[in-house]
């Protein structure tokens, strides 16, 4: 799940002598860790709670919280994509080479998605259908979104300056995200491309082998829109103009998010509907924009929580998120690993608790075990990478 845009703490954000180190982007790692936490609770309660326990409010709130991790991971993948693209452009890398590098990175993540499905199919040998190999999961959509963003950035950047290219890329991302969101209700219903083979149609609307799109899959419509909005946010918020105004700008981002939640929640209550089939929880543009508002609020909070300044040649942590050890920031650095591993211990044959047979208290205890285990795994991975880097 992780697409980390930066390296070790010694590297600079922009390559200039006055730039702050990469720790100023600690809020991105923290947000990934936050997404991991919500992912854990969603998966644990969904897998372990008994039918009786699922009737309580805990499961309802857990499922509501489960609407956040996938948008967060996709949004942050887009944000990181913009960061890396900007870095390559500032180094003078040719536009075609930048696009090629980013598209290949997306293909690599897509390959991880297929590899993950192969692992799951192998571990479930004997009862899992072969069609599970072609399920459109979150990793598949992150990889495909990165490929699409690479193509769009190359086409919309032209051959102008890096600053102009970033502006064009940002507004292109907004336009494409809007188009995907507005078309999603139609692509799931009246405009379904039924003439396509199901493995391909599933990337458009998540139909898989069923007679209608499935909400537990991650097709382009509407999920890729979160990645394109993340890309736009990255190009805008990491520009020289924005970096000179960061605290006020991120405060404005939070205010914008709160306003979007209020406005689009109100619009959803209007009696007039423009779509022949309206599904608020899965394809509604209103719900999409409400979630975007929540993402912006989380982004604003994460920035404030992890805020720091580069003063007198030293990085000074101001927000509590960078004072001492942060479990969420740590897991955010290895989010792909913890995503990959925890699935088997929650949903797979190595589940640490009986599936669909646990009480709320037992499932909550199991959630704590999963969190601690994944944190220790993340720390071990980070230390191993540090040792091999110095070897």
Tell me what the structure shows.
The chain is an all-alpha fold and 391 residues long. Helices cover 64% and strands 2% of the residues. It has helices spanning 26-48, 57-65, 69-90, 95-123, 138-157, 162-187, 198-205, 220-237, 240-243, 246-268, 285-305, 327-332, 335-346, 360-390, and strands spanning 308-311, 314-317. The protein starts with 25 loop residues before the first helix and ends with a helix. Residues 2-23 have low confidence and may be disordered.
Outline the secondary-structure elements.
Elements: H1 26-48, H2 57-65, H3 69-90, H4 95-123, H5 138-157, H6 162-187, H7 198-205, H8 220-237, H9 240-243, H10 246-268, H11 285-305, E1 308-311, E2 314-317, H12 327-332, H13 335-346, H14 360-390
Antiparallel strand pairs: 1-2
Helix pairs in contact: 1-2, 1-3, 1-11, 1-13, 1-14, 3-4, 3-5, 3-8, 4-5, 5-6, 5-8, 6-8, 10-11, 13-14
The tally of helices reads: 14
Radius of gyration: 21 Å
The largest beta-sheet arranges its strands as 1-2
Structural class of the helices, strands and pairings? mainly alpha
Keywords summarizing the entry:
391 residues, mainly alpha, 2 strands, 64% helix, globular
In short:
By secondary structure, this protein is mainly α. Helices cover 64% and strands 2% of the residues.
């Amino acid at each position: 799940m992780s697409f980390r845009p930066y390296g070790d703490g010694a590297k600079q954000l922009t390559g200039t002598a006055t730039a702050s180190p990469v720790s100023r982007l600690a809020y991105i790692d923290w947000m990934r860790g936050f997404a991991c936490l919500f992912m854990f609770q969603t998966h644990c309660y969904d897998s372990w709670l008994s039918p009786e326990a699922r009737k309580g409010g805990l499961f309802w709130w857990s499922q509501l919280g489960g609407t956040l991790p996938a948008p967060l991971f996709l949004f942050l993948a887009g944000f990181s994509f913009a960061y890396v693209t900007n870095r390559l452009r500032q180094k003078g890398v040719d536009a075609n080479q930048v696009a090629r590098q980013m598209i290949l990175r997306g293909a690599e993540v897509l390959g991880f998605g297929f590899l993950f499905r192969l692992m799951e199919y192998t571990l479930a040998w004997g009862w899992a259908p072969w069609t599970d190999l072609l399920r459109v999961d979150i990793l598949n959509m992150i990889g495909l979104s990165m490929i699409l963003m690479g193509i769009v950035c190359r086409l919309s950047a032209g051959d102008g300056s890096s600053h102009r290219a970033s502006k064009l890329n940002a507004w292109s991302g907004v336009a494409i995200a809007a188009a995907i969101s507005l078309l999603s209700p139609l692509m799931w219903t009246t405009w379904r491309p039924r003439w396509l083979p199901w493995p391909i149609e599933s990337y458009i609307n998540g139909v898989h082998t069923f007679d209608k799109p499935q909400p537990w899959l991650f097709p382009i419509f509407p999920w890729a829109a979160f990645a394109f909005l993340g890309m736009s946010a990255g190009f805008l918020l990491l520009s020289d103009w924005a970096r000179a105004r960061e605290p006020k700008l991120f405060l404005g981002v939070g205010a914008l998010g709160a306003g979007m939640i209020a406005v689009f929640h109100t619009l959803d209550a209007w009696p007039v509907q423009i779509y022949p089939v309206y599904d608020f929880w899965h394809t509604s543009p209103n719900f999409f924009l409400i979630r975007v508002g929540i993402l912006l609020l989380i982004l604003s909070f994460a920035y404030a929580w992890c805020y720091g300044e580069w003063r007198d040649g030293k990085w000074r942590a101001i927000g509590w998120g960078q004072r001492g050890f942060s479990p969420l920031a740590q897991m955010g650095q290895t989010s792909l690993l913890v995503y990959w591993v925890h699935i088997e211990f929650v949903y797979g044959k190595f589940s640490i608790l009986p599936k669909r047979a646990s009480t709320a208290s037992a499932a909550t205890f199991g959630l704590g075990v999963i969190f601690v285990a994944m944190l220790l795994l993340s720390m071990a991975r980070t230390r191993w990478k540090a040792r091999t880097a110095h070897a």
